[in-house]
Amino acid sequence: MGAGIWRIALAFAGILLSYQTAANQNFDVHLDKLERVGKAGEYFSYNYTYDKISGMKYSMGGHVQQLKELDDSYMVKALVARADLADDSPYEVMMDIEKPLCEWMRTIYKTYFYEELEKVSNFPHYDTCPLPEAEYVVTDYVFDAEPYSEMMSEGRWKIEMMLTKDGNVCSGIVMVTTVKPKE
What we know:
Elements: H1 5-16, E1 27-38, E2 44-54, E3 57-66, E4 74-83, E5 92-100, H2 101-120, E6 134-144, E7 155-165, E8 168-181
Antiparallel strand pairs: 1-8, 2-3, 3-6, 4-5, 4-7, 7-8
């Protein structure tokens, strides 16, 4: 699960940018910030690539070593928030989900991510829990936001994906994007 936190955040960005649907408008998505958070090196070691192919398309690959077994004592938290384009606009929370890891695997991961991840990685099956120490690889994954462009609304979007234990962040990512109409 932790191996795909950055990949899952990008998928959430594409799926959840449908707030205030704007018909017949095309948008550009600009990645402003992609930051890992948590105890570096204690839970995962990462080596990944992330390349922008075009304004709406990104190529990703990576190798992640999960260093600890993860069970239901860990929680997965996903937060999506949106703000207007003005720099001082406050973020409004659009989605805030927190579930024990095994429940996350059987529900959110199974429903929204497993089928696509299965094609490009050796990420675990959704029935795998606890997650044993393992090495995960993602190869040649391309995320294309273009199919979602007609559903997007302009604004600043913040996506946070966190793995926590006892309220402390073990590993996670914060991604901020700007969605603007194509010029």
